[in-house]
Amino acid sequence: MAGSPSRAAGRRLQLPLLCLFLQGATAVLFAVFVRYNHKTDAALWHRSNHSNADNEFYFRYPSFQDVHAMVFVGFGFLMVFLQRYGFSSVGFTFLLAAFALQWSTLVQGFLHSFHGGHIHVGVESMINADFCAGAVLISFGAVLGKTGPAQLLLMALLEVVLFGINEFVLLHLLGVRDAGGSMTIHTFGAYFGLVLSRVLYRPQLEKSKHRQGSVYHSDLFTMIGTIFLWIFWPSFNAALTALGAGQHRTALNTYYSLAASTLGTFALSALVGEDGRLDMVHIQNAALTGGVVVGTSSKMMLTPFGALAAGFLAGTVSTLGYKFFTPILESKFKVQDTCGVHNLHGMPGVLGALLGVLVAGLATHEAYGDGLESVFPLIAEGQRSATSQAMHQLFGLFVTLMFASVGGGLGGLLLKLPFLDSPPDSQCYEDQVHWQVPGEHEDKAQRPLRVEEADTYA
Amino acid sequence: MAGSPSRAAGRRLQLPLLCLFLQGATAVLFAVFVRYNHKTDAALWHRSNHSNADNEFYFRYPSFQDVHAMVFVGFGFLMVFLQRYGFSSVGFTFLLAAFALQWSTLVQGFLHSFHGGHIHVGVESMINADFCAGAVLISFGAVLGKTGPAQLLLMALLEVVLFGINEFVLLHLLGVRDAGGSMTIHTFGAYFGLVLSRVLYRPQLEKSKHRQGSVYHSDLFTMIGTIFLWIFWPSFNAALTALGAGQHRTALNTYYSLAASTLGTFALSALVGEDGRLDMVHIQNAALTGGVVVGTSSKMMLTPFGALAAGFLAGTVSTLGYKFFTPILESKFKVQDTCGVHNLHGMPGVLGALLGVLVAGLATHEAYGDGLESVFPLIAEGQRSATSQAMHQLFGLFVTLMFASVGGGLGGLLLKLPFLDSPPDSQCYEDQVHWQVPGEHEDKAQRPLRVEEADTYA
Amino acid sequence: MAGSPSRAAGRRLQLPLLCLFLQGATAVLFAVFVRYNHKTDAALWHRSNHSNADNEFYFRYPSFQDVHAMVFVGFGFLMVFLQRYGFSSVGFTFLLAAFALQWSTLVQGFLHSFHGGHIHVGVESMINADFCAGAVLISFGAVLGKTGPAQLLLMALLEVVLFGINEFVLLHLLGVRDAGGSMTIHTFGAYFGLVLSRVLYRPQLEKSKHRQGSVYHSDLFTMIGTIFLWIFWPSFNAALTALGAGQHRTALNTYYSLAASTLGTFALSALVGEDGRLDMVHIQNAALTGGVVVGTSSKMMLTPFGALAAGFLAGTVSTLGYKFFTPILESKFKVQDTCGVHNLHGMPGVLGALLGVLVAGLATHEAYGDGLESVFPLIAEGQRSATSQAMHQLFGLFVTLMFASVGGGLGGLLLKLPFLDSPPDSQCYEDQVHWQVPGEHEDKAQRPLRVEEADTYA
Known about the structure:
Distance between the termini of chain A: 60 Å
Largest interface: A-B, 81 and 87 residues
CATH superfamily of chain A: Ammonium transporter AmtB like domains
Oligomer: homotrimer
Number of helices of chain A: 17
CATH class of chain A: Mainly Alpha
Order of helices and strands of chain A: HEHHEEHHHHHEHHHHHHHHEH
């Protein structure tokens, strides 16, 4: 059948029909279920409500834009390093995020703010949806270059649901604290993508090996992503934190942790680099692990030193992961991890979760004072000891790994459905499969400006 | 005369003298008329004024930076797609915006805040000036590559005045609501530029056709502009909206609309694409129309579903416009629209205005409650019915199209003045006409690092 | 000895060991001395403290992100113009800033917030540390391409200390006002770097001349830096200014000054350009001097006209500096200034300091009213006359130039230590010395997608 006209037409229509179906279904669900919440609806909001308590909410607004910038500019450009896959990297980032934002508004709405037959949305819904889109884009990094856009939309369809359930179980059923999402975003997104990539393992991928590297200017584009992730990570971790000490502490810890992971990354990259030379892949990725590793604990009393130590550890572990573990992951575990999400999100996410276990276990009424209520409400209310909170945090990590692994496995099976359009082994990491691509250089017909011409214009 | 030394000197001096004259004249007018307003002047502001009402003002501050980012990064980089016109695209964006900001501060100041013989400026003046600069840059997109910098400055000189008057007529005389500027910014900027481009029609433009496309990495630079426009559009539409439900609703509606226009664009681009392949031009532009189409109505009770539907419609219409209408626009209507502003701003702007007519016509006291005063003050005060407001909105669109068309026509005649420097037909879309341009590649003399050399350094 | 295996190993280990040592030492000092301040510590912050006075603090949060964006995106990408040094430009920006942030937190902490045996850190510490990192990156611009990363870290180690002391002397001992840092950041950073570059003078640098220019797309990357600096400069100058009129005025003055410097730059660039063509180097740099020149005075009652005049002057002087003075600086004064920091930060910084002298000398109780206390507290309290404040401002400039020159000289001697790794004259401006660099173009083995292949995928 392959190559027959009808099949080709079917394949050509896959993406448009799926987009139209998903957008149509989402729109119908929005029409039936989604309503503005009381802080967004004209009729429910009153100027007289404008109190300090509401102030808290207004401050969210700039944070939302910071998170938004981080997800789109950051994740989008971090993936353009491939020499012939830049269109797909930023383009599919856009596509996936645009769908994930809508779909997770619905999923999270049903889980968290469904009452009176309606989901109630506001600025917080946007931030939560952006977080979920972040997890989907992390998974995208693992399968980058080896999947078509229709496959990716189906991946997002499944992953958004499991992300929402996992987050609900952790935050609401288990009382786990994870403000910046070391577990819910990074660990979940990374292992979901890695297991999925394992199921989609391509033994013949070396046919596309010559396209798997970067070129000089694609690495510079990638640094745009890196820098935006680096600068906005303090806002990302603090985006849903209540105003005041907690938000300041979260930003400060994240900032210190990133600074230390950067120095750790440079040290290790030069140490293990051929002839002492630095590797751009390490700087682009491992330097960011400081943001991941304090995702769970940045709101806690981690101390500035604790933030530095955590960031440094993450940066070094991640760099070593790129150098030594990624090749093993492919050769022994048959996991082809295009962007190295295991090193940027997987290991640092797990480390971050464990750091959260440790810091939670050390929490005392003395160290947190009145702030205990906002950081560990269940301890403050006497429902849990610090040790019990630590155990719950650990169990949360376990749950996340389960959801991610089972979900990634299911996702892999879904994406293997034979009628789905997937690039052949010899055409992975290649924009031309999905895009009309212009040449790399300007038209050869172009001539330099000649003096006669310059003189004759009107 | 052409080619004679004196003429060449005259042409060389055109840009510097115009810059110096415009800057000098602006500075004199600033010296005579512009003063800090009471929220900016040291002597007029008192700490005791620091009330909730003022809070509203402080919150503007981050929004100002968001709008600023959107106008400069967004519009600047959205136009670098041309393979040999990147310097001019970002450079002239800078030049035009820097002049438009000053000039529109004066024009808008005379129209809106002139009392006691002075214009009073503050943070709101900056946001309003940025909006006006946005409209000028939209018009720039229509004539991109076919006009010199001196011509562009003259275009801005005229357009800023007409923008100010049109906005004044709509918002102050007609009581039209247009928070995000579907009419005042997008429709006005697009049709001003399109009519101007019509007057400047070049029948021989195919002489520069080989330079009219993009190259691989120029398309990636363009995606920087796209992403920044996408992420900051919620702030752009909400920048001048009062705090509270209205601002949240504006951001939320814009966000949903953009998500839907993105999915609609991918669907249609793949559907009409050759061999089912996506076209980067569609993604770079049509995916943004969700922000344009809710410009008038995003503050209204559009409902989340309404935002999705509007965005989807705009994305699909815009994509179809790029595919089918832009060629007709050139061949039949003799409008050469370099960036396709008709598809990104023109049609979506008109659609957005009509959507505003519809949503305004459906406004009820029930749906808006206490919020009616801030969204439709004239309806709330009983001076107008919803239907009457809708009619005023429609008339506002008509006025905008008139101002834009007549203004664009006048602008075209102005730019055709024979002594103005304009690139010849064979040198359109070419940086070398205006800039000292380095080569595309590093010096051929460069040699790879040899081992002996590496070993001999101190 | 050169070229011997042991020496090569020693050189290879320099960067990793220095990174590890500096990170280790910083971490120990953090462990001993650094604590959260009362607005960041869970136990010290109380919800009941949430007053208007605190509000002031919360508003800092978005400004922090703006400053952060400006320092990293702005300075990082402004330096990628060199055709073969993009990795080092953004990479070492990252490295230097990550170290400077930590180290200046300690240095500034000891000088400003050391009590009870501890340094107390919060959001303001982050902004102050970012400012210091900015100065270090300015100095980096002077020596860009001619120094290795270990040398740069040592430079930062010294510069951060002197930056902190100079700032302390100016702001706390002399009562100098310098909100946006014309003196403390720009003048200090520039002359520190220039004197250092003088000490490191390389008579044989023409061996690397062929690598010293830009290529077409590296100039576009640089424009990313330029635009981010331009848009966030109002926030940068206003970041540590108290809320209210002062902050608005600072932003407004900076905005006007930048607009005028942009027009002045275009005018002069076209005027002095070969054949009337614009030079991208001028636009990338001189257009930004409007932000530098009002660094000292933007919070003062400069008036909108004053801001325009100052910006215009800075833009023209800076453009002329690039054209005429930079070559003399190298040939006569033996200062090799890679990025032209003398034109972007040096001269405009000194001009900004002198403008501050003038505006301070003209201060009257009438013009400032109640705002005098926040702008010139010592004049408001009657401890100083306006003339005396002006003299102190002038003396502050003198002190800054002293600290910068002596510091830069010491720094140069430090960096000349013979065992430090430095690129040879023939390998300056070359990434390959420090990085594993991929090719400029995609693998030649890559073939276009053939139809048979496209048809055979699963």
